[in-house]
Structure formats: structure tokens, C-alpha cells
């Protein structure tokens, strides 16, 4: 599961990371307006607040959260169906929902936080994407500061400065996590290399001071 601030590049990374892979990407429900070019059922299931709240009342979400004035949630049924088919499931969600997944699934969920190189760069990316008003960009950046300070709660932290390197790190995490389900003696050389690379992006040694430097930069 990928989490991190809005505009850090989660969607961009996900497209490159999962290209050609047989995994299930969970399409979220949201109450926000569709942006030009977004397609109902592909980018999101766009619903009214009443429809969203009814689904939540029926326990139809694995997690759900409010983000800058809108509801977002991961519908549980498609995930259960994908897991029953034996597919790995990928979520791309904000931090409050990611915390809910962590609480609910424990070690069963592989949690990756995507970190921006700096808040200045995050602002540049949100502005460059041109999907939000200046006011909404400021609200998303405020939320980003809180989200970044929680990065250490996730198993891996990958900095999305160089996109290609970040994709390689995501692939390594995926390969390493799959390998750890088998005895180490049976790992291939590629799995050993992936494990070593994944170890460099474990969140274990992350200090609050380092997170503060990102939000102040
Ligand atoms: N490594 C990178 N270097 C420079 N620009 C990047 C990089 N990764 C992504 N971007 C750009 O940053 C912008 C935001 O990326 P993207 O939409 O993938 O973010 P996101 O985290 O999925 O956002 P949201 O959570 O709001 O959906 C896009 O314009 C994208 O092209
Ligand atoms: N908790 C959840 N967060 C989600 C979900 N789907 C997307 N998101 C995150 O919301 C913000 C804003 O998204 P945007 O499309 O309006 O830019 C971003 O961080 C998304 O990753 C979800 O199902 N649950």
C-alpha cells in the first residue's frame, strides 16, 4: 500500500511500478468532483455524500477518511474478490486511511510512505499539475505537513526525487517482501539484491528531526 502527501507522485510512481504486473489496483470511492479527463469507475467511483455515507454505514469500506473537504474510501468487496483470486492488492491512499489499514491488517499490509524531496518541490508539483485552486493547494500542503510527520509509522519510506530510482526501490520492496515468505536459503541472487536495496529504505532509523527538515524545506 502506498501513502503520502497529495501531489508527491504516488499515481505517477504506481503507473510505472505496476506496468505489466498482474496485481489488483483498488479504485476508490470519492465525493469530490471529477477532474477533466477523469473517468467514472476507472480513476474513482464518484458518488454523492449520501451514497458514500450509506456505504460507510453498511461497513462497505476497508478504510475511509475525509481529505480537504471530501470523503475518500476503499471499497472492501473488490479487494476480497481479488485476494480470493490470489492477486496482490495495491492501494494508493492518504495517511489517515493508511493508518486504519495498518491497524486492521497488521503485518499483512506492506506499507510504503512516499516522501517529497521538500515542501517547496511538493508545492511546485501541485501547482504544475494544475488540478487545484491556489486555496486548495494551500490546504493540501497544510495536510501534507501533518502527513509527513507520520512517515515513520510505515514500514518503508521512499523519497520521490528521481522517479526511476524510486520505481526501482518500489520493485525491490515488492520482490523482497515476496521472498521473505520463503526460507532465506532458497532466495535467488536477484532476491538477495532486492532485499539489500529494500533494507536501505526501511523506516526504522528515521528520526523526527529528518521529517521536520522536509516540512520546513
Ligand atoms: N519524481 C518526480 N519528479 C518531478 N515531478 C514528478 C515526480 N513524480 C511525480 N511528478 C509530478 O508531480 C505531479 C503530481 O504527481 P501525482 O499526480 O502522481 O501525485 P499523487 O501523489 O498521486 O497526487 P494525489 O495524491 O493528489 O492523487 C504530477 O504533475 C507528476 O507529473
Ligand atoms: N483514505 C483514502 N484516501 C484516498 C483514497 N483514494 C485516494 N485517496 C487519497 O486522497 C488524496 C486526494 O486525492 P485526489 O485524487 O483528490 O488528489 C490523495 O492523497 C489520495 O491518495 C481512499 O480510498 N482512501
From TrEMBL:
GO molecular function term, any single one: GMP kinase activity
Compartments (UniProt record): Cytoplasm
Catalysed transformations (reactions): GMP + ATP = GDP + ADP
Residues in Guanylate kinase-like domain copies: 1-175
A cellular-component GO term for this protein: cytosol
A Pfam family per the record: Guanylate_kin
SUPFAM superfamilies the UniProt entry points to: P-loop containing nucleoside triphosphate hydrolases
InterPro entries registered for this protein in UniProt: GK/Ca_channel_bsu, Guanylate_kin-like_dom, Guanylate_kinase, Guanylate_kinase_CS, P-loop_NTPase
Record's keyword annotation contains Cytoplasm: yes
Keywords, alphabetical: ATP-binding, Cytoplasm, Kinase, Nucleotide-binding, Transferase
Residue sites binding ATP per the record: 4-11
Protein EC: 2.7.4.8
Summary of the function given for this chain in its UniProt record: Essential for recycling GMP and indirectly, cGMP.
NCBIfam families referenced in this protein's UniProt entry, alphabetically: guanyl_kin
Protein family per UniProt: Belongs to the guanylate kinase family.
Protein name: Guanylate kinase
Species assigned in the record: Deinococcus gobiensis (strain DSM 21396 / JCM 16679 / CGMCC 1.7299 / I-0)
Phylogenetic lineage: Bacteria, Thermotogati, Deinococcota, Deinococci, Deinococcales
Amino acid at each position: 500500500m502506498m501513502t503520502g502527501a497529495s501531489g508527491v507522485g504516488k499515481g505517477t510512481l504506481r503507473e510505472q511500478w505496476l506496468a505489466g504486473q498482474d496485481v489488483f489496483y483498488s479504485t476508490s470511492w470519492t465525493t469530490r468532483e471529477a477532474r477533466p479527463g477523469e473517468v467514472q469507475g476507472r480513476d474513482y467511483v464518484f458518488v454523492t455524500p449520501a451514497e458514500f455515507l450509506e456505504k460507510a454505514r453498511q461497513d462497505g469500506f476497508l478504510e475511509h477518511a475525509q481529505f480537504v473537504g471530501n470523503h475518500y474510501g476503499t471499497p472492501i468487496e473488490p479487494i476480497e474478490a481479488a485476494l480470493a483470486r490470489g492477486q496482490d492488492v495495491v492501494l494508493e491512499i492518504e495517511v489517515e486511511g493508511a493508518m486504519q489499514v495498518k491497524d486492521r491488517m497488521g503485518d499483512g499490509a506492506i506499507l510504503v510512505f512516499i516522501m517529497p524531496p521538500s515542501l517547496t518541490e511538493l508545492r511546485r508539483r501541485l501547482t504544475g499539475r494544475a488540478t487545484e485552486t491556489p486555496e486548495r493547494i494551500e490546504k493540501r500542503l497544510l495536510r501534507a505537513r501533518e502527513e509527513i510527520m507520520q512517515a515513520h509509522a510505515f514500514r518503508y519510506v521512499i523519497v520521490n526525487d528521481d522517479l526511476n530510482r524510486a520505481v526501482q526501490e518500489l520493485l525491490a520492496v515488492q520482490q523482497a517482501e515476496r521472498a521473505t515468505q520463503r526460507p532465506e536459503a532458497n532466495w535467488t541472487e536477484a532476491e538477495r539484491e532486492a532485499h539489500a536495496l529494500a533494507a536501505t529504505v526501511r523506516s526504522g532509523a528515521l528520526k523526527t528531526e529528518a521529517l521536520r527538515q522536509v516540512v520546513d524545506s
